[in-house]
Amino acid sequence: MSREAAENLYSAIEKTTGLLDVPCSRDKVWPVLSAFQAAIPKAAILFRLATDARHAGEVNCHMMMLPGDVDPYALALSKGLLEGTDHPVGDLLADIEKRLPVESYGIDFGVVGGFQKAWSCFPGDSMQKLSDLAEIPSMATGLAANMDLFARHGLAENVTLIGMDYEHKTMNVYFGEADECLKPEAVKSMLRDMEMPEPSEQMLNFARQAFGFYATLSWDSPKIQRFCYSAITREPLSLLERVDPKIEHFLTEIPYGVDEPKVVYLATSPKEGEYCKVNAYYQWRPRLVKHMHASVSESAD
After folding, report:
1. CA distance linking residue 150 with residue 156, whole number of Å
2. Cβ-count burial 219-249 (b if 16+ within 10 Å, e if not)
3. Mind telling me which residue stretches traverse the membrane in this protein (predicted)?
4. Is the dihedral of CA 103, 109, 278, 268 positive or negative?
């Protein structure tokens, strides 16, 4: 059954990329699906498209899985999907697992770029403290550098998920239960503290309807590289005042998850400004989906 599920997922990826004029090579995609095929039947699986320059010409696939005997980074290494590294990002997932409760894992891979990311998701009723995360030896130094900033905005004990980007040597920290931070004045204040561009009206309106957000941090700089708000809706076009043609094409043409909610992201960074990402479900798994959105969902960077 796992092999059949992997073949069906590959066919769906091939069809999706064809609709979006993105090249799809079985030699690139199948090794990832083969490595994780045992998890595919029970995973929540999403396809993602983004409008920033870094993701041009790419479609990503995100899988959220219940924990197994092998962590996703170790499995990716063993299957040759990644090269080993001396960078601390290579130790972070295992170090988190040793010290904190992990309820589920996630992975992200690009149809063009291959295996890229992994996530450690904490239990929905057990958000973690920034102070505990900062003590992890391999944790990005950018987290400790911004602890006071996050604490000023009431986020010292609100961490739901950590993401590791092995391609770019960065990490994401996801926050939940932060309604006060989603109000327009709070959004302006927090983005100003992060030295992000002044938010547009679209960003302010979007944040009102978001369920959480995440920051992208690194080991090389104390500055927050990106900040992203996340929302889930059955009508994603209604959340965006300006819709990139690529996003509209993705939402109207992709045949998967038509009746399921879409996960929409609005991100900002000093380099790229504001841009949008959208996830559409290929496979919906209620237990994982419920946890994923309680934990601020997705995958991304």
Report:
1. 6
2. beeeebbbbbbbbbeeebeebbeebeebbee
3. none
4. positive
Cα gap 109→111, rounded to integer Å:
7
Nearest to 215 by CA among 155, 259, 263, 258: 155
Does this model's pTM top 0.85? My answer is yes
Strand runs (DSSP E) across 66-178, as ranges?
104-110, 114-121, 159-165, 170-175
Residue whose C-alpha is closest to residue 63's, from 15, 2, 119: 119
Is the torsion defined by CA of 244, 246, 249, 251 positive or negative? negative
Q: Where are the domains of the chain?
A: 2-294
Quickly count helices (H) and strands (E) in the chain.
11, 10
The one-character DSSP state at 199 is P
Quick one: CA torsion of 52, 234, 298, 190, rounded to 10 degrees? 70
DSSP 143: H
- 115-170 tens-digit pLDDT: 999 999 999 889 999 999 999 999 999 999 999 999 999 999 999 999 999 999 99
Supply the pLDDT for residue 259: 84
Round the CA-based radius of gyration of the chain to a whole number and report it.
18
The answer to whether residues 40 and 282 touch, using CB atoms and an 8 Å cutoff, is no
What does the block give as tokens for 84?
């080993």
Buried b (16+ CB within 10 A) or exposed e, 12-21: bbeebbeebe
Q: Is 116 buried (19+), middle (13-18) or exposed (0-12) by CB count in 10 A?
A: buried
State residue 288 phi and psi, 5-degree precision. Answer: -70, -40
86 backbone φψ class: left, alpha, beta (φ>0; ψ -120 to 50):
alpha
Rounded to 5 degrees, φ, ψ at 233 are -160, 155
